[in-house]
Structure formats: C-alpha cells, structure tokens
Amino acid sequence: MTGSLIYKFIKSLFKIPRSLTGDGVRETLAKIKNEHIPNLSIYEIPSGERVGDWIIPNEWNIQSAYIKDLEGNIIVDFKENNLHVLGYSQPINKKVSLKELDEHLFSLPSNPRAIPYVTSYYRNNWGFCLTDLARKNLKDENYYAFIDSSLCKGSLTYADLIIPGKQKEEIFFSTYICHPSIANNELSGPGLATYLAKWLNDRSNRFTYRFAFAPETIGAIAYISKNLKDLKKVHAAFNLTCVGDNNSLSFLPSRVGNTVADKVARHVLNYQNENFKEYSFLKDRGSDERQYCSPGVNLPMVSIMRSKYGEYPEYHTSLDDMEFISPDGLDLSYQIHLKCIQILESNYFYKSTILGEPFLSKRGQNHTIIGGIENDESKSSQLILDIMICCDGSLDIIDIANLLGKYAFNLIPIFHSLEEDGLIEKCE
Amino acid sequence: MTGSLIYKFIKSLFKIPRSLTGDGVRETLAKIKNEHIPNLSIYEIPSGERVGDWIIPNEWNIQSAYIKDLEGNIIVDFKENNLHVLGYSQPINKKVSLKELDEHLFSLPSNPRAIPYVTSYYRNNWGFCLTDLARKNLKDENYYAFIDSSLCKGSLTYADLIIPGKQKEEIFFSTYICHPSIANNELSGPGLATYLAKWLNDRSNRFTYRFAFAPETIGAIAYISKNLKDLKKVHAAFNLTCVGDNNSLSFLPSRVGNTVADKVARHVLNYQNENFKEYSFLKDRGSDERQYCSPGVNLPMVSIMRSKYGEYPEYHTSLDDMEFISPDGLDLSYQIHLKCIQILESNYFYKSTILGEPFLSKRGQNHTIIGGIENDESKSSQLILDIMICCDGSLDIIDIANLLGKYAFNLIPIFHSLEEDGLIEKCE
Amino acid sequence: MTGSLIYKFIKSLFKIPRSLTGDGVRETLAKIKNEHIPNLSIYEIPSGERVGDWIIPNEWNIQSAYIKDLEGNIIVDFKENNLHVLGYSQPINKKVSLKELDEHLFSLPSNPRAIPYVTSYYRNNWGFCLTDLARKNLKDENYYAFIDSSLCKGSLTYADLIIPGKQKEEIFFSTYICHPSIANNELSGPGLATYLAKWLNDRSNRFTYRFAFAPETIGAIAYISKNLKDLKKVHAAFNLTCVGDNNSLSFLPSRVGNTVADKVARHVLNYQNENFKEYSFLKDRGSDERQYCSPGVNLPMVSIMRSKYGEYPEYHTSLDDMEFISPDGLDLSYQIHLKCIQILESNYFYKSTILGEPFLSKRGQNHTIIGGIENDESKSSQLILDIMICCDGSLDIIDIANLLGKYAFNLIPIFHSLEEDGLIEKCE
Asked: What is the ipTM of this complex?
C-alpha cells in the first residue's frame, strides 16, 4: 500500500526544524530529491528581494532553546519538540521575572495538553509555546530564557519539478514546506506530492506535470512571481494539504468554482464510499489557493483534503502529529488524486462520426427484446448507445459520465474502444 | 370527428403483414398514397447498400406458417395472427421434437394471454411466438414446423411527402412502418401522419412540411443518409408513435431539450385538460428520435404520445390491437398536433413600434378605474398592454404566452390585430 | 430630519387642484422651482400634438363645482375637497332628477367613508365623487348640478432638471404631477424628488442627474418622445411614487429585472431594518415604469416604495391624505434613495494590481494566529483579503458586497483606501 510508504517517509522528516526559511527547509527538500525525485530543482531567493507585494525576510536558523529555573531545571526544551519556540524568535539569553516571561509565552487554555504552533515572521519578538498545563505550573520566580537563533540576510528556499508530457498544458500540484513538527497540516502534503511525482516520473503522460514545494503564502507568491508565464498553461491544479488523517473527506473548490479541476475532483469524490464536505472558497480558503487563485493568477486550483485545516482541534498544535495521520488516510488521498490524474489524462471532447446509432449487431452486440422486456445482454449495448448519443462534441468524458450517472474512470475503456472502432473522434 | 376517420383507416391496414422490408410495407404505403395522399413519393433501397453505420438487409416475405401436430391439428397459425411468426424467420419444413421446437418458441410467462412480438433481423433464426397458455398445452411429442418465407436480395421501402410553404424552413413529421398487427405502437403513427398531411395539403402554409414513413431504426437511418442536407432546414420535428390509446399523455423531449419543438409541445400539453408525464430523452428514448436527434443529425424532434412505448403492459404484444386504441384517443392526438402546427405557423418574434404604451382610448378600448378597482372591461385592455410590454423582439408568441400564463393559441388573434394596427412588427 | 422638511413642503401643495393639464400643475411646478430648485426647466406641449401613440388632450381648468338641493343646501362642494369632481368634467349647470344625477355619481360601497378619485380624460362626461354614506342620504328629488370648468385648447405642462456630472451617463428620477389632493400616490413623489435634487445640486457628482416631473402616463410618454436620445444615456432610473407612508417597504423591479438599478435597490433594501416585498413587473406594474421600461425605451427603472399603489385601501381615495403619510415615512424613503445614489457614485469594477495577497504586515495590518484561533484584530485584515480576492474586474462593489454578505455602503471606504494604496485599480 503506497499509503504506508508515504507514512514512513513522512516520519523520517518529522523532527526537522522547518520554518519559512532556513536549513530545515533545505534538509527536507534534499531528502525528497535524494531519496525519491532526482529531477527536483531547488532554488534560493535572497532576503530583501521583492516578490509580488511582499519582501523576502531575513533567514532564520535555530540551534537550541530552553527555559530554565534558577535551580537549573529545564522547564521547556526545544530539543523535545521544535514547536516550543515561537517561529522566527530573536536570540535571547536573559534572566526574566515570571511577569516578563509570561508576555512571551503562548498556550491554549481551551486545549491544555497541546503546544500551540505560533510564529512572528514579520514583527520582531521572541517567545516560547507550551501546554497550558505546563504554563500553570510556573511559579512566581525568576527564570532563564535562552534562544540560540540567528536572523540574518540569507535566502528563502523552494523547489519544483517539471515532467514534460505530450501536451504543453500542465497539471499542477502545489504543497508547502514551512511548519516544523506538524504532520497533517504540513508533511502529508509533501509526502503525497513526492509519491504522485514518482508515479508520474515512471510514465509517458499526455499532460506536462508541475510540482512546487515552497513555504506557504510568501513561498507561493514567490513561486508565482518567478513562474507566472508558465502557470498560464495550467489546465488543472491541486493544492496538497491536510491529506493524511482518516477522519473525513473535504473539498475546497477553486475561486471560479466550475473549472475542470473542480469537475474532476467533485466527480471522483462522488464515487468514493465516504461522503465529503464541500467548503466555500470565499469563506473557508486558507492555504496556497489564496495565492494561486488570486485574480491576477487565477489558476483552476482545488484542494481535496481529509480533515481540513482550521476544522479539527489538533490543527496548528503538537497534537497534529504522526499519530493523528495514518497510512490508510494517506492511501485514500493518494488513490483519489491518482484517479483525478487518470481521468484527466483520458478526458477529451468526443463527437460521433456516424449518422444515427451504430449497428451493434454487426459489431457483435446483440439486442433482443421480447415483449418489451430487454435481456441482460442489452444493458451494455444500451450503455454504448447512451455514450454515443452524448458524443456531440460539447461534452467531455466527465460530463457524459455525470449525465449517465456512471463513474468516468470506468467509462474510459469504452471510449477508447469506440474511438478504435472509428465511431467517435476527438474534437480539437 | 377526425379520430374516427383515422381509426377506420387504421383498421383497414391492421392485417397487412408488415416487417422491416417486403410487400407488407409496400401494400401499406400504397393504400396511404392511393386513398389519401396522392403526392406521396415511394422509394426503394437495395439490399446490401450501406446507410450510416448500417447495411440494408435482405428482403423478407412470408406466405404462410404453422405448427401442426402429427395428427394434422394446427396448433399455431400465421393466418390467425401475423405476430405468430418470429420476424425475419428463415423458411422451415421439418418434423421436430418438442425439445427442439421449444428452442424456437417465444412466449411471455408474465403475460400468459399475450402473443409477444419478436424479431431476429440480423441473426439467422426461425421461430414462433405464442401465448404462454398455448405453449404450456404442448405435449412431449413431435410436431411439424412449417414456415413458407423467403429471405433474399430485394430492397427496403420507405416514403415521403413534401408540402412546400412560403418559407424553406421545414416542420418534419416522422413515423414508422415495420410492425405487423400492432395498433398503438405502429399504425396510430402512420394514421395520424396521413390525416395531418391531408389537412396541410389543403392549405397554404408558412412552413414547408415534410413527412417520412419508414421502417423504424434502419429506415430512419436510411432516410437521414438520403436527406441529410434537406433535414438541416428543419425548424421543428415530431415523431409520431403511440398516439392512439386513451389512457394518458406522454412527452419525450428532444436531446437538446429546449428547442422550439420542445417549447410548443410543452406549451400545448400544458393547456390540455389532462396532465402529461414528461420523460427523459437520455433514459427513456426508444423510437426514431434516437436517430434524428443523434449528434450528427441533431433535429429538434419531440414525441407527443398517449401511453408511451415500453410503459404499458400491452406493448409489443398481440394485446396492442384495435381495441387498445380508440377514435377518442386518436382524436386528441390529432388536435394536439394541429395546435402545435397552428401555433408554429403564427409564432414570430414581435417588437413594439411605439414609445410607451398604446393609446387604447383612441382605439376603442376604455379603462376606468374607480378607487383602485378596475372594471371588467379593462381586463382585455390589460392583456393588450401586457402583450405590448413583452414585444421587445427577444420573445416569440409562445414565450410571451408562457410569461403571461395564457394559451398561445388564444393570443394569436390579438397579435394579428396589433400588427394590423401597426403597433407591433415582426423581427427578421 | 429631512423627512419633516419634505412633509412640510408637501402640505403646502396639498390643496392645489392638479389634473392632467391646467393651472394646478403649473402652480405646483412653480412652487418647486421658486422655493427649492431654481434650475428647474418648465415646458408646455400644445393640445393636439402627437406624442408616441397619444395625442395631447385639451387643457382642463376648474373654478368651482357643487351639488345643491332645491332649498339651496350645498350637498357636495369642490371647495371642501377637490376630489369631489370627476377629473376632466365638462361644465354643467342644470337641474337634474336624482335618477339622472345618480348616473354621474361615483362612490365606493366597500369603503363608504372615502371619496373616490375618478377621472374621464378621454371620454366626455361630467360627474361628482362622494362618500357612499353621503350618496345614500340623497333623497328622491331634484338637485342643481353645477361645474364651472373649461376644456379647451391649451397645453400639457411638465418640468425637468439636469445636474451635470463628471460622466455623461445619467441617473434618472421620474415622478408625476397630476392627482389633486392625494398625498402618498402623488405628492410624496415630487416632494422626495425635490429634496434629492437639492442634495445633488449642492455637490460635485460622478454621474449626471436628471429629474422629470410630468403628468402620469401621457406626461411620461411626452417626456420620452421629447428626450429619447438623452434617455439612452441612463445608467439607472428610479420612479418616485408612494414613498410617504410608514407601513411597509415595497419594490418593483425593472422589466428586464437585473439591471444595475435593480441590483443597487435590492441591495440597499436588504440592509434596512424592515423587510420589503418584491412585486412582479409583469403582474404589478402600474406607474410610469410602464412607459420608461417599455421595449422601445427600455430604461433600467425601478420603484422603491412604501405602501405600493393599488395595494392599500386608502389608494385613489380621499383617505390617501396628509395623515396617511408621515415625516418618518418620507425620511426613510429619502435615506434609502440617498444610499442608492451614494453607492452608485462609488460603484466601479476593480481589479487587483498585485499577484497573490497583499503584504498586510508591511501595511500595518497584523494577523496573528494561535492554535488556529484568530484574534479579533485579524477580522478587518480578513475583510481586506476577502475584498482583494474578489477584485477580478468582473464584479462591481455591489456584487462583491453581496458575495461577502456585507453592506456595500460600508465597504466604500475600504475600496477607496485599497485604490489609494495602489493594490486595486478601476477597470475601464
């Protein structure tokens, strides 16, 4: 099961201290490239460069961090969980009163056993994140706060992969690399992207495939500003996020809402055993579709997810860990995205080449009717006639499958056989 | 009542042994031409000729057929009912065991008093159709099976009629001639077509009218392949089938579903006293609209029926006979199709020629309002104003009637009078 | 409160005996011009001139009228209420039996305390309108019927006002002047028009504003026939009628139904505290939108009303008086129309000038998320991002407000600030 392989790979990335920039991102991308996708290209954009309306910030790296009481007991330690440090914390090495320390602590009273994930990318600050239980145990005394981090000119790191196909039109997968030890809302995406890319790398494809791995938000904006011309060729796009748990299926449509990406995603989701919940782009968007679907870029990008970001209590906390996701959860996401790819690869507009119905008797299909009651054999003949009557050049395979209440993936062989028989032909 | 005349004419055709080809079709068409439509043209297409994806089969004729027991008792006799023989049976003259005979018998256990209608046009076979009651009476002994038929090179016969009008655009009626002694699902169609053609032959018409009489399926495909260019001029088309019984009203829309034929048919059906059931083209089609609405032909063809083929227990059995249909049933079908014709003849897009409302007082229409309560007289004025405000050139008479909740047929005189008054004019 | 000023002004016009033509109209228009809108232009069209399908009738003026019994007691007196005389009554001075008089009396049995408003513009007649109670008190004796009126060649009077703006496209307000002492269904309209014009006269506007004051129906037709070319520039139009009472809010859409006038009116009505009832143009129209929305003119004209004409028992009777309307009722109508104006003045199609989202941190907007829970501060940031993602050039401010579930009036400052920041720009 591919889901197990993805799970195992993700596990090997879990402890790497990723952030918006820095060596954690580089180490993660290097493992993807070295272990799975040798044709991955890795790029750096220097701090201070303008991308879209944004400016690449200084690069942040961190060695260690802790809070220690005056007796030398370590209360909070970055080594144990890299969520313990406020992302982009400035270095600090200072004795502080509880009162002063408290202004730099983040915890979740409503979820007292979770360490929250907090960042301060664009406002200078330092801080520690801890469970609310631990915070309540702090005493009204002095502590040592120590963060060995650096925040200096450097660069933002991202990667992409192009797998050329017969057509220049592209299918685009985007995923983000910037959260530290978070499983569903970080690593499930790059993990799935890696294994989809491996599958496509081994094949000859109709479409050109593009994968982008970049920090969320500013990384996507940077990727757009470097690749806008190529992105105009995107035929369908998928944002890979929150694809790892096993609780539910979620769908976030594109901004426009009725692109071919929306069509194939809704169709495939409708043929899963489980229900899915469709969210609203306007009300519920929250990942890189905010950039890729923005008016000036306007990609047909959808997100097919398990538990959606912001909609599960473990979201953006230490509880979104390797136990929250599962091989089964990842595997269904993998299968669904593969079905979308396979349907899109075969999704053409066909038109009938003949006048009236085909002569099925001649073609080895018999159709006997006794007293108005059709025999079983005729059912597959009927499906062929139903498909043929829809092939008017205005409907693609997914449209026809929707009209006939059938799963497009199962109709593909029939379309291929009708095309071989010369009964239908592709429209240009 | 025209329905009685149609009924009487159908009765005279009932016993003729029609099939896909052969003298039964010729005799039926000859009676239509000689007794009612002298301008009918009759055509033959030789066996072996290709039409669409199909090939014209050999011609089939039959003189007599029976099953006899060894004592000489005739058990099943073609003379009694021409449904007793499997359509396109090869000749046979052979002593057979019950076991062998049984493989060539067709009956309906679910409808034990009915002889089913079965054919084997494109697979060599011979057989007899009988009631399930009669079949159960057969004893385990030997029988003589005798069929005096011929299956040789010949031709497929069809006919058409063109009644030229002021415009080249055509209204097209199609009906089929190929079932032997079946009333609703065969002769009601040609009977209605004959009397609609007689009515139109006597008049000067706006549209050109075309009628086709051909065997179902392959006959329609043949007609299309001979007349495709002319069929491109069709403005509205009606398939005449199952128009004879008195049980219900049924409507099968065109493939596209919103053509002017669909519009006029739905409108007229909405103004009948009875409800009608609208079927789905994709799920329920089954007659020559399968050919005429196919993507390469794409006619705006609908079917206005009584009990729809496949939807009544007598369908495709000996019980679909002259007692199943009635003069009243035929008459309502005749009236409905006539209303469709009459509305289409007057159905133009009009636009108002004046600015604002017409000055009805000047035109002999008075409109007095006392304390906000309009008097009765004003209602017809109001209808005129309602019509005038809709005449913006984008709506035809049926659209306007639908908007106003009125029967288009009743509005025609008002449109004519407004046009005579110069208040509205036709759009080109 | 502007509603009080409008109410006071209307009161000063209430007793003037207006009709389709004559000095009552002139006196009303003169007061509007002299007291409020010096730039109002007043026009006369001579009797007999053709406008649209209509002909300007003779001018009607009246000095006095009464019914007197033979003892000299005045039973019905024009001096008391100018509704007592049938509009356009010919002069009469005659002793009449009750029977003869009765044929010239109009009353409302269903509303016995109301004097109905009745006219006979295009059929020669004379008559008196009275309460049904008074009518029942008449005795079977002779009376004197006296009407001192004149009906001779003269002219029809109307007025308009153009307030030039930066753009040639016009916002058009129409209202009618022809009913005598009727408050909601007459004077509320001109009163509101006067105060909207005063407000606009004091400002520099984007759109050009046009106001027309004319007798209902024939006056509107006359106005159209004199100004058709200019009316083609109308961007949105409002018919001002029945805007004075305090009972409800009503909306009559334009003929086309989805113009920018419909859009802004529905939007503003949706953000009032009260519900509103939407009527059907086709079934419920009844004022000058019948002319302005007619096919040859086709203005995007809507009516935002309080109690709609024809829908309240006081309509077209003496009970539609100064007590039926109120300063509060007028004020809400004033505020609603002002909001429509203000939104239209700012209603552009904007497109984002940047790729992806704006960098709000840089722009002084902060967005901190702790464990998936957004802080309050982020809500306004979110609104900016929501607006920006909608600025694709295909949606105007009202469309975007509708998508986001916000009141467009409140979004205007945000759009202005985003435009100043260079993040969005107007589409041509």
From this structure: 0.91
